[in-house]
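Feature request disguised as a bug report, sorry. It would help if multi-protein outputs had a clear separator. Right now it looks like this:
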Amino acid sequence: MIDILKLFYTTHYNLGALAILFVLLLIFFLTKKNFKGAIIVFAILIVYNVGIYKRTEGKSWTIEIDPPESAAVNDGYGNYTKPQPIKMTFSATPEKWTITDEKGETHHWCWLDDMWDKVANTDVVAWIWGENASKKMMKSTETRANNAENAN
């Protein structure tokens, strides 16, 4: 468990910082002799680390990285062929946690990156006010942008 948490926290240091804050809060409660608070924070810290461990241990994630357009190969007749996407599989082992490609770039992917991807692709306006309000807002913004372009 310790090895997995070391791998996870060295890559996702923001969650490691949150765990450190829990430990500091635990120390604070213990110095103030607030044992109820210390027990609550200790329980939260245990659940937090076990949750990260359970979501990471024994899992693997495969992603496909599309090569850039500049990697297209000319066959000599003016035809360009795009190289196949590169598949990378990551798991919670030290060898597969990060992968360094031939260019020297280090890649990493896990459940947290999947979750951040979902959050980043969420349309908040549609989620709060409904799909129609989101479409109306985008349409009115586009109309204003077009009117501003036409005025110039």
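(second protein starts here, but nothing in the output says so)
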Amino acid sequence: MPSVEIVNVVGMITYRQELDLQALAETFSERDEIADLTYEPADNHWLQTRFNPDDSYVAFYRSGRCSVAGADSVEHFHEIANRVTAVMRDLLEFDYEPELEVSNIVATAELDLTVSLEILAVHLGMESVEYEPEQFPALLFRGSDHTILLFSSGKVVCTGLTEISDVSNAIAEMASRIESVQ
């Protein structure tokens, strides 16, 4: 089975209350936990922040949801979510645990296979493949719940899944499909 490297975990934190983004922006500008802050309501409907110490991106929405990006593992996502929630507990009154949800894992792998993308595109079925080498050097495979970019060097990028085991299985399945046409 190929070695899979997680490069980004994206997730959501849901607070069960509406957020006053202007008030958050004013308060966040005074907090050491916040490395960077952008709030321009005329241009964007969200508050963009970077949290210390790892510069994690967190976007806050009026609906009470927060999008977290930049984690390098599911555990790291939970650490970031806990730091965000600690700050939010200082600012808001709530006595519940916010809902945490991993919404996407982006992973890469090296298959140690040289791949003829033209042959593979036909083998995988044109209905689930996009391959236009004049436009982009990778084959794009759309599975039922994930997308894989495959380069002729054997490098794979998988996105769209929420469980690491599913990512590993999707990449292993693609490796098997490649081996079957070689």
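Even a blank line would do. Unrelated, but nice: The chain is about 30% helix and 35% strand.
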